[in-house]
Amino acid sequence: MEIKFAREFTDVKPRRLEGLLRVEADVQAKCKQINYTYNGFVVSDNKPTAMRLSLTCNEHNETWNTTEAKAFLNKDQSGCTGCFAHKRAVGGKTTPKEKIMAKIDEQCQKYNVVCTGVEFGEYVNQNCMVRLSCACCGDDLGTTKFYSFIERGRVCRECSKAKTIAKTIAKEEVEKITRLNGRVDFVYDRIIERNKETGFILRGIVGDMQGTDFIIRQRCPIHNHNFSVTWTSFKGGTKGCKYCNTSAFRTDIPVNFYIQSLDDRYIKFGVTNRKVERRMIEQQRESVFTHRLIKSFRFSKGEHASKLEKLIKTKYECGVVSRDDMRDGYTETLPFEALPEIITITNKMISESILMPK
After folding, report:
1. How confident is the model at residue 357 (pLDDT cuts 50, 70, 90)?
2. pLDDT of 271 over the 80 cut
3. Are 19 and 31 in contact (CB under 8 A)?
4. I want to staple 260 with a disulfide (CB 3.0 to 4.6 A). Which of 194, 239, 268, 271 is the partner?
């Protein structure tokens, strides 16, 4: 085995020689930093073998010829047994103590925990044990291996559970508020729509509007009467001003006169201050028949519609439908064959009264 400097290789190609000179310059610079002596390249058959180096550690006075140039320059590897033993004793083989502590601090900030101690054992490496505590509650979280802490982290179960519960509660509150906001809009829209028909004035709502038992407070401007109804009663239209409810409808506001078909076997006529469709829905709930609107008329004054209804009841024998089959409005029913005459009577009444445009 022979040792040569790069300039001593006379039978290599120029480009190869340039490479050797560059590597040699880098090796010499590093040797100066770490107190090594560069002796040259290891030669076999007058050629540098795998770019191996001959180096001497000045501190331990040890020479070796087995280190590759690439490993020496890039990975800080050498063949000095004295340096190797010293490195293991003070800083680990590949993981310095400062690097381990820096990673521990980084993980502690990420998982909101505190490192209360590190047990390195005989060597400083990734098998060291890290003792942790919770930064929030201060509970001791025990020890875990360094590499496990880096890969999987560590959290306080109690604090994590509390945070999960808090997030769930917050999410439910947001969903509750969202639903309630939509519910509030729906309730107010229904009340405003109904009050346009009845003339009642909303005074307030008692309750959170989530169920059906909240109270709607209203005032009747005609009788100057305050009253309250539940949301269920309000939707059904079964309760309101007790003075207005003494009659089927109010004669001082526009009134609808309607004619319905009951399975095309009977007809049902009647008057209402509200929308005909809404009144039909209420009647359908307590009827065995299928209700279909044939025609409706809107009178400017309720007295005209009332007169028409009384005229029909006087002229015909009404109530042909059993109360068991139709509990709401069965007294205003006639055979389906009476429909043409009812239409004729209605048209005559219209010509004698004021009919509002629909």
Report:
1. very low
2. yes
3. no
4. 268
